[in-house]
Amino acid sequence: KAGVTQTPRYLIKTRGQQVTLSCSPISGHRSVSWYQQTPGQGLQFLFEYFSETQRNKGNFPGRFSGRQFSNSRSEMNVSTLELGDSALYLCASSKGDFGTDTQYFGPGTRLTVL
Amino acid sequence: GESVGLHLPTLSVQEGDNSIINCAYSNSASDYFIWYKQESGKGPQFIIDIRSNMDKRQGQRVTVLLNKTVKHLSLQIAATQPGDSAVYFCAEGFYNNNDMRFGAGTRLTVKP
After folding, report:
1. Are residues A58 and B99 in contact, defined by beta-carbon separation less than 8 angstroms?
2. Residue A90 and residue B43: Cβ atoms within 8 Å?
3. B3 pLDDT tier (thresholds 50, 70, 90)
4. Cβ neighbours around A47 below 10 Å, total
5. CA of A106: which chain B residue's CA is closest?
6. Which chain A residues are within 8 Å of B44, Cβ to Cβ?
7. What percentage of chain A reaches a pLDDT higher than 90?
C-alpha cells in the first residue's frame, strides 16, 4: 500500500509570493490534516479536511488555506508569504474516524522563503 | 496558554537498555495522548496512543504511562535499538478532534 505522498519535496519562494502544496493520501483515507513544523514552534496543526469539507482548523491566519478534492487529494495554499512561513509542511491522512484512527504522515514539503 | 512540554530535550542510552521519555502537559481537560517518532528526513510516525480513562497501555516494546494527577506522560522503550534513534514527540488533544498539540520533542540517541 503506497504511503502519503507530498509534492514538491522542496520549494524556495520569495516574500510576497504565494505557494501551493499538494498531498495525496493513502488509498481509502478520507481525512487529510496539515501541520507546520518549525524549530521554534514545533509541530502545529493547521487544518483538517474530510470528504471535501474543512472539519477542524488550527490557529493560523487566513493566509493559510486548503481544499480537498473528491479523490481525497488535498492542497494547501499560503498567500503573501512571509519569512516566518519557512517550515516543513506535513500532511497526514487517516480513514476519518477520530481517536481510533491512526494518522499517517507524509515526508513533508520543505518551504524556504527568502 | 495551555502547552505541552518535554522534560529532557536529549537522551542518550546504550543499546539494549530501556529508555524513558517524559512529557508534561498543561491542559487537564485533554483526554487523548499520542507518541510519535520522527526520523531525520521523514514525517512523524505513530507509536502508541492512550486515552485519559487509562493509566497504562502497552505495544510492541513500548509502554505509555499516563499520570493525570500530575499531568505527566511517559514513553518507555524496552531493549532500545539503534533504529530507535529519532526525535520523539508527545501530543495531547481530544479524542474527537484532530487538533493535537505537540511537545517540542526529545532526541533519543542509541549508542552501540
Report:
1. yes
2. yes
3. very low
4. 22
5. B43
6. 43, 90, 92, 105
7. 82
